[in-house]
Amino acid sequence: MNKLKQWWSDINSSLWFVPTLMVIAAMVLAYVLVLIDVSINHDWVSEYPLLFGAGADGARGMLSAIASSMITVAGLIFSLTLSTLAQVSSQYTPRLLRNFMRDRGNQVVMGFFVSIFVYCLMVLRTIRGGDEGKFIPSLAVAFGLLLALVSIGMLIFFIHHIASSVQAANIIAGASEETYKSMEKLFPTALGDAADPEEIAELATTDQLRWTPIPARTTGYVQGINNESILDFAKELDGVVRMEHTIGSFVAMGDPLVSVALYQKDEQLPEADEESIDRLNNQYSIGHQRTLDQDAGFGIRQIVDIALKALSPGINDTTTAIMCIDHLGALISYLSDRQLGSPLRTAGERVRVIANSPDFDKYVSTAFDQIRTSGADNVAVHLRSLTAFETIIRRTSSFKRRQVIRRQCEQTLFAAEKNLTAAHELQQVRKRQAEALELLAKPLLHKLSA
């Protein structure tokens, strides 16, 4: 099932899948309309000469003109799409290319023009005139004309869509929306039941267990994990599975993917057989790049990369960086009151899986640390980061998570004091940081485990 999800995600992000389906649909439509034309009486055609008055030569000429123009426009659209992908890759970050490739509007427009071309070819081959025996599929020809008229609107839509999609605000908002969807699906996670505190303390020192590593069969980034199947494997084995890699991390072929231990005292799992290795490897989706399906951190990484590119000396676009910080603050704020799950998960009375997943501190560090370093001499970056921290503080009552934000506030002030030379700018940062710390000092509104 995990491999099937990965396969579906890959083809859903391709530029060929939707156009291929639309081409097949166009072929079926042309065949059906021609069959209808064959089965009906065409005497009524003379009553509507403006719509169905074309002879065999006229019908051929019109469909030929439509087909040639559609394939020309299709080539233009593919060229514009590739140009847009190159621009996004160079100006923002290559990690956004997958978002553009899976954009349904682009896929539908590409498929629409190619489909009209194929439709016209299918209908053209059925037109007969003169010695061949006269046959003009009037309905099919008229529908081809209708498609050509609709294509004008599709071309205008595509130009508008491309112009909108390369705007920084829309790119950042799109990446943020995709990350929101991923977070809603992932948190809270459901991998068995949370372990009791006593069991957590018992397994904190795992020297009591003798681990057998399970090697990875392939090289790449961990895109997804079938947590339920890993939990079932651990129950069948009457042991515990320790995940060695988290979602989004890179694993090399032969490196330990997971480690397995038995609960029986002084017993160690013998060298894993091929069936167990294959079974555990099949629970991991490993590909050439990170994806958002189970990797919310990758969405945060995309927005951070846009901010870093904007803060680079060659671009120096503070406004874009500020928009990134705003969206990062909103995303972390959403995470701040969500239950991210315990690393130790149980089934029954025993810990069965030791999960390896990012905690709240890791997400916050990914979102703000590099931006603070790249924008160390930019007062706007420090001020907006502190504003984002205030937003996060208002959403969480977890003491541990508030301490994470406190450290971020302190690091922001330290970076400002070290890099800002203007006294009035430094004073602004100090004032905003004091406001954030004052907000931290207020009583917690409700309890949330970290």
Which helices and strands appear, and what pairs or packs with what?
Elements: H1 2-12, H2 17-39, H3 49-52, H4 56-91, H5 97-101, H6 104-124, H7 138-165, H8 168-186, E1 193-194, H9 197-202, E2 212-215, E3 220-225, H10 227-237, E4 239-243, E5 250-251, E6 256-262, H11 274-281, E7 284-287, H12 296-311, H13 318-336, E8 344-347, E9 350-354, H14 360-374, H15 379-395, H16 399-419, H17 423-440
Parallel strand pairs: 4-9
Antiparallel strand pairs: 1-8, 2-6, 3-5, 3-7, 4-6, 8-9
Helix pairs in contact: 2-6, 4-6, 4-7, 6-7, 8-12, 8-13, 12-13, 12-14, 13-14, 13-15, 14-16, 15-16, 15-17, 16-17
Our count of helices gives 17
Could you spell the SSE succession in H and E letters?
HHHHHHHHEHEEHEEEHEHHEEHHHH
Contiguous runs where pLDDT drops below 50 for at least 5 residues:
189-195, 445-450
Structural class: alpha+beta
Tally of discrete structural domains: 3
Strand order in the sheet with the most strands: 1-8-9-4-6-2
Shape: flat
Tell how many strands the DSSP assignment holds. 9
Oligomer: single chain
Output mean pLDDT.
Answer: 84
- As a percent range, the share of strand residues is 5-15%
Distance between the termini: 31 Å
Main β-sheet, in a few words? 6 strands, mixed
Using only C-alpha atoms, the radius of gyration works out to: 30 Å
Share of helix, binned: 55-70%
